[in-house]
Amino acid sequence: MSTMPRRDFLRTAAATAAALAFAPRRLFAGDSPYAARLFVVQGTDIPHMLEAGIQALGGWSAFLRPGQKMTLKPNVGWASTPEQGANTNPEVVEACIRSGLAAGAATVVLPENPCSSSDKSFAMSGIGAVAKRTGARLYEPQAGKDFREVDLPKGKILQRASVVKDVLETDCLINMPVAKSHGGGIMTASMKNWMGSVQDRGFWHRNGLHQCIADFSTFLRAALIIVDATRIMVTNGPRGPGRMETPNQLVFGTDPVAVDAYVATLFRREPFSIPYIQIAHDMGIGCGDLSNVDVQRIGT
Amino acid sequence: MKRNLIRGGIFLGAATLALQVLPWREAAMVFPSLSPLLGVLGALAARTPTVWIFLGLPVLVLGYCRSRWFCRYACPVGFAAEGIGRLNKKNRGRFVRLPNVGRWLLLALIGGAAFGYPLFIWLDPLSIFGGFFSAWRVPPTWTSFALAAGFPLVLLLSLLLPQSWCHRICPLGAAQDGLSAVRRRLETRPAPAEEKTFRLALSRRDFLGVAAGGAAAVALRRTAAGDPLPIRPPGARPEAEFTGQCARCGACIRACPEGILRPDFGQSGLAGLLTPSIGYSTTHCYEYCNECTKVCPTGAIERLALESKRTLAIGLAEVARGKCIAWSDGQYCMVCHEFCPYLAIEAVEHNGVNCPVVKPEMCRGCGACQVACPALPDKAIVVKGIPQRRVRTLEDELSSQNPV
Lengths: 300, 404
Description:
Chain A is an alpha/beta fold. Chain A has 10 helices and 13 strands.
């Protein structure tokens, strides 16, 4: 039996102490009378906020072991600047990649099937530069080669889809959308973000967008959801430009319905007024009823 | 031998510029601008001189001092035509029997340019040479080959009847012949008074040629506008002038990084044959691109700064409600609104679902909506050509949405 080196012991102890210091009221879901739990981290120091959120969820060890592959799905859909809030804030993406690498991730990949041209989206969003700086691989999946056709047995309308291989085949899948208003989806956060990981978005639009959004989440669940609500586009989304507000929040959770329901409130929306949240709740994908969600706030 | 080396070098240089492989997009303008027909007469027709005409002026002066200097040293079409003509020894010298078509073409061109419609400007050899490189455009289309056909046709003609192109048809060759004719007359007679010079240079037949060109220009400008209007590159002159001022050199078509510009093949009428028009199929005209406006040697497409391009409408989107999945099927879609870079799609609630309505004061006709529209089998939102016009800025629209 190997013994733990003193330095590692101290490091672990310090991390545990730090995690406890953020003092989530209930550390283990088993104790909870709630259906879901999420953490809302408030602040302006983004790397610090990210660490606080990860620690609140039990630290990286809950999602990732050293040497594993991490897939991050930010929203890099638009040729638009970070200030316009159409894409995930590059600082949030960078903090997460660095933190994951420090926790031992062997590779970090960021596949994104963008709406604007990929080179413009990747460059203008600032996320291309982040990938370059951190050594992560940001790429536009190519039709056929980078996708795999899967069955969605629980889907009502969407029952087959071509999904990015790196999203399907990974050790740690992180959904990292930006929260913003949306013409067809009304509001978008985590569940709708998967539209950037499938090949044929048009099918969703033609065949009941909200049902398809929910259907896809019966099939795919991220290990971790981090919603960028540092600045949110409250009108003219998803592309904008629109009116901006700055909640300065990152929302951490594992239940996509609860996370989206909370984010809806940032847009002063009743969660069930957004059809896909209601549908996903009714299908049992997660809990969209915020009275039954343990929303823990962490100031930094 | 030395002369042919120079010509070969210029040929390769012109080809490199025409292929637009250099990082500086405007480089594509350098070579065509050397032709005074494109640069100087183009500027006369468009009534907007640019700095580029200064490249054509020295060629005029050289043409006056040295007989056909440009043809003998610089013209890539002349170089190739002369080379291929040597293969046909049998018909050598027979071109002299042909009438001097080039002179009439030139006179009509000058008259047309004075009235804003420079007829036959597309017969300029540098334009024909440029058009040839459209065949290398990726992806190739059969219309891009049509645009490229001029140069091979000139070569074929030169093989059948050597020197006929250069000495009997080419309007740029005729222009230089005209200049040296003026010089010869001036030198063999005592220096005349200035008005006398004009009378010597312009015979009655020349004047008639110019006048006929002018009259044809006026007539063509009235009939040129097609219906429906094609979608022209941003900065294009009004339709009735554009079809005349465009030299069909294909520079804008090759400059377009998205490949949405293509040579028109009859959609804008006979007058518009092979002029550039926009078709949106897989991609649209991006708000951060003005490449096609940087390369027009005649000024048929005005150079536009990005800021200026962003407030220029080149078309107008129209929603066909019967095909729209929001309007007719009650689907949550709004993909057109999602992709519109200019806030030009308004969401209107209809049966509890957001449905798109185009705001004409914001729509630039960029085609983002048309490309993205998921409706099948036909797109439910399609851009139509309009006379280009200025529209509202994004900033104005945003501040009117959110009054302070």
